[in-house]
Amino acid sequence: MAAKSWGRAVSGPILAVVGLFLLVLQQTIKKEADVAQALKYGAWATLGIAVFMIFVAQYEVWKHEREEREKEVGKNQRPEIKGEAYGFELDRLGMQSQTQDAQGIWSSSAAIIFRICVCNHRPVPTNMIDVRLDGSAVNWPIKFGSCSLPQGTPVAVCLEHGYSKVFLVKSTVEVDSFRLDEIGEMSLEYLGVSVIDGFGGVHPLSLSSDARLYFSQPAPA
Questions:
Q1: SS3 (DSSP) at 167
Q2: pLDDT tens-digit profile of 155-188?
Q3: Mean pLDDT across 95-110
Q4: Cβ atoms 95, 110 nearer than 8 A
Q5: 218: which DSSP letter?
Q6: Number of domains in the chain
Q7: What are the start-end ranges of the H helices in 77-190?
């Protein structure tokens, strides 16, 4: 890497200026002895600059490596939560509604539940302060409400290094332009699920391959 940096430096604008200066001297000095002397000094100057650029290149490499180390250390000082969201279904004990506006357009909403299995992969304890759903990429006109954990779940559950924990999560879904019985089965393939840690960090979770919601019939066992 140092050789690459040095090569970039010596082929850069500094030696180009030196070369241009020597060309001007060659054109303006008339005596051959003076020209030879100027070229000699120019050659020594070029060599000196090339040697100096070796130290510059080494400094650039040291600076780059230090920045990379500091970046890695800073990253390791934060938790890294990984996991999966699965088991999406309607909350049969929650609300379900559908309304029709003055133009005859339907809008439906329902309570849903699902589970997340999460694990902290770094030795930095934290807690989970929020779960977020992003349905902007799902192939349905849907919006998800805020998520919550069932009553009785400790808010400050500590996510320690290497311990997996499973949480039941509640939320709501709104579907525009459809009645509940028209929706049937909804694929959640492109649903975004993430958890927020106690530091405010956002951690995307993977989604089970068969993630979907059944509106008109119970989910198969």
A1: strand
A2: 567 899 999 999 999 999 999 888 888 888 889 9
A3: 86
A4: yes
A5: P
A6: 2
A7: 180-183
Q: pTM above 0.70?
A: no
Q: To which H or E segment does residue 21 belong? A: helix 13-28
**Domain carrying residue 72:** 2-76
Per the domain annotation, does 167 fall within a domain?
A: yes
Average pLDDT, rounded, for the chain: 79
Work out whether the CA dihedral 177, 180, 186, 192 comes out positive or negative.
positive
Residues 99 and 179 in one domain: yes
User: Torsions phi, psi of 89, nearest 5?
Assistant: -160, 160
Q: Output phi, psi for 47, to 5 deg.
A: -65, -45
- As given in the structure block, the two tokens for residue 125 are 């304890």
- On whether both 103 and 142 belong to a single domain, the answer is yes
* Distant-in-sequence, close-in-space partners of 93: CB < 8 Å, separation ≥ 6: 111
Does one domain contain both 45 and 98? no
